[in-house]
Structures are given as C-alpha cells and as structure tokens.
Specification:
The protein has two helices and eight strands, in the order ααββββββββ. β1 and β2 form a beta hairpin. It has about 140 residues and is an alpha/beta fold. It is globular, with a radius of gyration of 24 Å. The protein starts with a helix and ends with a strand. The N terminus is likely disordered. The chain folds into two domains: about 35 residues; about 90 residues, Sandwich (Immunoglobulin-like), CATH 2.60.40.420. Bound molecules: copper (II) ion (CU). The site of copper (II) ion (CU) has 6 residues, from β4 and β8.
Length: about 140
C-alpha cells in the first residue's frame, strides 16, 4: 500500500516539473528577436540606494519622533541631502510625483540615506508608512 501511494506522489511531482519546463521553453522560444543574445540579464534591483550618493552632505534631515526635521529646506543644485533615521518606528523617504520618483529610500529604522539633487525644483516627499510625515526640498 505504501509503495503505491509513494509512486503516485512521484508521478505527480514529475508532471509538475514537466509543465514548468514546457512553459519556460515556450517563453524563451517566443522571443525571436533576442535569439542571438546569450541570456536575458535580470533587471537590477534597488539601484537607487547605491547610485544616489555622490557628494558631501549639504543638509541633514533628522527622521525622528514621527517627523522630518527640518520639514522644509532649500539647497543648491548638485547638493546632497542625508536623512538620518533614528526612531522607534521604521520610516522611509518617498518622493511625490514624477519629478521626485528617484527619491526612494528603503525602510530604515536606524541609519542614513542620501540623495543628490541634480535638477532645480521643488521636491515633496513623505514616509509611505506614515503619510502624515511629509517634507519638501527646494533646489535652487
Ligand atoms: Cu514613517
């Protein structure tokens, strides 16, 4: 009895693998344009955390007590803002609107994250975990 049940389970697993392999093959062969390329490279993940810092910090924004401080600040083009996270709750910095899309920190409880502003303008941001936490960076 136990042998029979074991074999049945094995067949089911094999069938599952076969279906997966078939789907995978079909997905690849459908890409005729990419036939000459060796493999599809995976999309990079989380590049914003490493590429945004490239200068001395002109302004530090404290992220504590459920608020950004200062909430509103002005810097010059090319200057870097560093957010220093130190609170009981984790927070993040997320730009509002298309222009501020690059402002996109991970969720941090203690630590810092920097962003260099290369275009003049007014950048609004918030903490997506606590949308009442908001700030504005004006870049002149
Ligand atoms: Cu928050």
């Amino acid at each position: 009895m136990s042998m029979v049940r074991h074999r049945a389970a094995s067949v089911r697993v094999l069938t599952g693998l076969l279906v997966t392999a078939t789907l995978f093959t079909a997905g690849c062969s459908g890409d005729s344009d990419d036939a000459g390329k060796p493999t599809r490279t995976p999309r990079p993940v989380n590049t914003t955390t490493t590429q945004t810092y490239d200068g001395p910090t002109a302004l530090t924004v404290d992220v504590s007590d459920m608020s950004f401080s200062p909430a509103d600040a002005t810097i010059k083009v090319g200057e870097t803002v560093t957010w220093e996270f130190d609170d009981k709750a984790p927070h993040n910095v997320q730009g509002i609107g298309d222009k501020a899309m690059g402002i996109n920190s991970p969720i941090i409880k203690k630590g810092e994250w920097s962003y260099t502003f290369t275009q003049p303008g007014t950048y609004r941001y918030l903490c997506t975990l606590h949308p009442d936490m908001r700030g504005t960076i004006t870049v002149e």
